[in-house]
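Repro:
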Amino acid sequence: MSEKHLQTGDVLPPYSGKLRLFAMRFCPYAERSVLVLNAKKLDYDLVFINLDHKPEWIFQFSPKGTVPALEYEQGKAIFDSNIINVYLDEKYPDAPLQATDPLRRAEDKMLVENFSGAQSAYYTAAFNAQALQPNMVENYHKGLEGLQKEMESRGTKFLHGDEAGLVDFTIWPFLERFLALPLLGKTEFAIDSAKYGLLTTYIEAMKTVPAVKAYYLAAETHAKFTESRAKGDPNYNMLDTSAVCCMRPRKKKE
């Protein structure tokens, strides 16, 4: 698979008959759906797109041109990671990723919602540092503290239980990126093992989950991409080391 991000003027790769996910390699929301597809051990194609110079055809699958979008039949797609992931879990019920108890499913959704403040703080710290306010750092750590408290209450290896589930795959992409913040000089966002012992143990456990391991990027890699994006020139193709052997060539301009 090529890591090349297709852009304006590039043609849509031919449909193979498999599920096809349109994504951006460094997007945490797209990663959520990649992890679910991996966890389900589904056969799928992955197409990366440049979000600054979007190929015209992405709007056929996602009206706003956002990722992820899942093409489940040729020319038919659903978008938004939450919608996609619930669909996948219900469509392919083997190895279910959601709790069977309705109350626990509700608790998982509330946990994700309560964690959103930390996600917001991350985006400001990473891409708009001049707008960072002290209360945002506080919100970030409140999110981490709430997550650690919930893990302590549940007493399981993962939030879902003894195996990682949808709630883990929803939160993990942000934790993966949080680890890059100290490398960008944002030391106040460090996840200190002395304070967050249970959380750091969880992070290390998540790195070993096969679905995660197959897609995981190191903090140094996320930091490098973040720096390029913060400068206004995101290097989408920084991981691409292969020729685009399975994609049609870009159209020539008349």
